[in-house]
Predict the 3D structure of the following.
Amino acid sequence: MPWFGLDIGGTLTKLVYFEPTDHGEYMDTEDEVQRGKTIRHYLVHNKAYGETGIRDEHLQLDNVLINVILTTLKTIT
């Protein structure tokens, strides 16, 4: 299942989407797999969210190891 981090500032809100790419250490239920696919489709296939939200592709980090889980980090501002 993907995870999120949220920072709400004075004029800018940032959302970081943690997308695990290594599922070896844990098993997702079928429900979690479907939910993850839906979230991933929305975030990856859009570059704009609403009227002002954008995905900063240059801030994406691929193949990051977090607590033995390989992940991709995407930033939306």
